[in-house]
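Q: Here's a chain of 155 amino acids. Please give me its 3D structure as tokens.
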Amino acid sequence: MSKFFTSVEIAFYPEYINCWLRFGKPDAKHNLDRRRSLVLFGPAQVFGYVRWRANEYGMQNWSIAIARARAPLQVLTRLEGIHPGADILLLTTGKARVKRVLAQLDKLEAAGFEPAEISPAYHRHIHNRILTSRSVKPYSDEQHDAFLAARALGA
């Protein structure tokens, strides 16, 4: 049986573009040249993808997406750098909002959680709270245990 992948573009051109994975464990990585590579994720894998672009006038675009790779024929959202698309759990732009998301990911990791392994509903919670400029509620062990139990049941 062939496996379908979601490819994510990684690039680094100093002072112009920087696209990188914040978290996630790709199935494969292919170096295109010394500044660009592609990483591949199988269906249902969750990853964090950060992009920024600048020009001679300064920062033009800064975004973060937390996405879940999907199988063919499932609903996908197209996003620059992610092909063919993914289920977007969190998407925000702008320096201040991206920094808030990165701080939340740091808090999750400090609490002992791997961001790729937590409930997708919590990523959506972070998205909604940051977009409405409200404080993010912490992720609890009880939430995580409930998510793991539901996942084990196939829910």
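Q: Can you summarize the key feature?
A: The first strand starts at residue 6 and ends at 13.
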